[in-house]
Fold these 4 entries.
Entry 1:
Amino acid sequence: MVKLTRIYTRGGDTGETSLGRGERVAKHDPRVEAYGTVDEANAVIGLARAAVDRTLRNDAHRAHVDDMLKRIQNDLFDLGADLCTIDAKRGEGVLRIVATQTKRLEGEIDAMNAELAPLTSFILPGGSEASAWLHLARTVARRAERRMTALAAEQAVNPEAVKYVNRLSDHLFVLARRLNDNGAADILWIPGKGG
């Protein structure tokens, strides 16, 4: 476990930071951009959890949604650890995203989606407050995916990590629909009707 006794170290005062094994890189390094964007997605999911806690009336449903989002937040810390450690295999004591984490997301997506009516249009982000936060988290997860695939074009990235973040945005989309009264409160895009 991590033990933080000091929050500031002054190690980043010159525009560099340390990766998982102590390598120093610029704070704008593509690897730092990738795991920083993952951290941003995690923060938005925290806001979604707060909105879920305030708005869902059914205790069992609220607990189920919160459990899913809490697991995802923990996974995102795993993903950050994965991304900040270069060229290591899981057996070397390095935390890596694994297929079971991606499969869990897929199972949850399938279970939630089974209760939703098929889409007839694209959805505008919004509806309930929790859904709006989940849509924002989804777009940040997509940005994290873009950062990760750009990084993967230049350096080693765990392929399962890319799969996980791709599936995550799908999960957040479907959960946003579920929290919009199973899609009944979704705001549908009407082409050409913006003005």
Entry 2:
Amino acid sequence: MPGDPPGGRRAVAVWGLGVAVYFVAITYRTSLGVAGLDAADRFHINASALSTFSILQLLVYAGMQIPVGLLVDRLGTKKVLLLGVVLFTTGQFGFALSHSYGMALASRALLGCGDAMTFIAVLRLGSRWFPARRGPLIAQVAALIGMAGNLISTLLLARLLHTWGWTVTFASSAAGGAFVLVLVVLFLRDHPEGHEPAPHPHVGKGFVRQQIASSWREPGTRLGMWTHFTTQFPAMVFLLLWGMPFLVEAEGLSRAQAGELLTLVVLSNMAIGLVYGQVIARHHAARAPIALGTIAATAVLWGSVLAWPERHAPIALLVALCVVLGACGPASMIGFDFARPANPPERLGTASGIVNMGGFIASMTTLFAIGVLLDATGNNYRAAFASVFVLQAVGLSQMLRLRARAHRREREHVIASRVEAVHVPA
């Protein structure tokens, strides 16, 4: 069997193409975050209906994670990424042309389907082109670059939207998808020469059930899912839809000031992602403390803003909240680091799909809860945003329950792999 992939410049170039696809997908995913108020005016909808855009998009995304993981395991990265680009570009262009609420919903669902095919494929691409010891850092850097797609939304799309209008802004942004589609067709490869994965003999329904069941049985997979569930959603909800309305309508900031704070979340995410990746790559035992510390810091800052006795929280507290929210994305990547050593390479796509479902299910649930509570309370953002604590409590309890079991199982895998390596002839 071939050893670890060597990495190198070609690996960076090929992997970079996959990350470019993810970057464009994130730009499209988060474009509604700066257009929420405009969408409410364009389609004449209330808060619940507005939240349905993001809920449907995330519902499709979460529902596609296991099928996409299976597709990546069976078909490889390139085919899955190509299909994803076609779908999310078509969805973004359709959203640009939408004049009815129904057409806009269908376009966001199509976008979510294509978006769902990107990140798991990029994780698989990194594992095929780089040595395993680089896994945590490569995953964090991929998430960091993808997160930069938020900067396009908060800095560029927000300005173009008020200069060019809805249709021109969203339609022109679809050109990015067409561009990366050409690059993927011409240059992307699933793996370096000499590192082809062994063909899997099992196909059909039995294969699907076995892949899912085997992945789920591993405590590391379940711990990874609940880690992703508990850490990712506060920042996702804030960036994807409700951050801008909250900062403008509840905290009295201008759109420009709110946009700057959303940008701060993205910049914090990128900086903290580099730190987390380096620390975890060197100190594997730091995974759980970092995840738990991020959850605690998020709860404290979120609670402080909501419980502030005056009408508007001070800007310094809002800045601190946005910096801490920036840590949520990098902390959610730790979920994949729990699942990766628990599963063999041929099952990694499926396990990653299970993990990736966690945060998006939590985000979808919270988006829905906030929309309903806003309508029920007359736009009381503080009451609506308190729903975050319920999801955090559920996820944290599961993480604590699975932590020791996953650690023991991972240690067993490490010992077994060392024994196998000793007995395999050179």
Entry 3:
Amino acid sequence: MPLSISYSSSADTSVIELAGELDASTAGELHEVIEKASARGLGTVEIRMAKVGYMASAGLRSLVFARQKMGEGVEIRVVGANEAVARVIRAAGLDRSVQLIDE
């Protein structure tokens, strides 16, 4: 299933909503949106993943890329990830640099 990405921003938050599969063939699209969000210089980036059914290691690299691109002063929230995706994030230790939030 291809990845669908929507992006919006408000006063202090960028919201990136994903639907589909986050893997090597789709991660580049997410990187482009992360670049766009980082240019806004906002305090919070919310990555909504409730509709992501599968995340490969390229998806983990995308979250690391977001953390590096946004800098330590920006809060990154991964919202609504299903248990399988959240487990991968925790196993990689990324839950120490991004917030996992149930929806």
Entry 4:
Amino acid sequence: MIDANLRAALPPAPGEDAYRSLAFADSVATLPGGQWYDLLGTPESAMRWLSSHELRAPDVRLYEVCAARMRTLRDHVRVLFAAHIDGAAPPEAAVTALNDALTSVPTAALLVWDATNGPRRVQAHPTDQAVNHALAVLAADAAQLLTGPDSGRLARCEALPCDRFLVRTHGRRQWCSTRCGDRVRAARARQRKALHT
């Protein structure tokens, strides 16, 4: 496993800026050299991930059961993304898990009014339902990616063993980062050189 600092140095996969669910799916990955990371591996790292994606209220503390629920939904989202890319039907359990997350919290934003900020809408949720709220937001985002205009551009990185997902930005490029693209090009160059020697 690699530490979170090295993962933080890796660039986000194309599309993560538009889809938090893509970043959620890519919060675990296998990298070259037998390395891997899991940004939801502990309650502390899961809290950091939620905070960095604006999905955690400052007063919320996560416990292992919450981090485990996040990892479980993430695994289902990864299965759904892979099935979509492969043109296959996903397991019913993955669809059910996403729908359960979608319907686990009220979706209507409440009206709040205070003297400083005036009226605004907020997605209120009690502390004990904060994870439900985050998972519902991520599930809705995943459903949008799977059914929206970018669904045909969802891909997995083709630089094995990397297993990150991305939204293709142009052409046929299907690498999650320049690093993975450079690795593929270097391997192709070595193959061509070996064929000519």
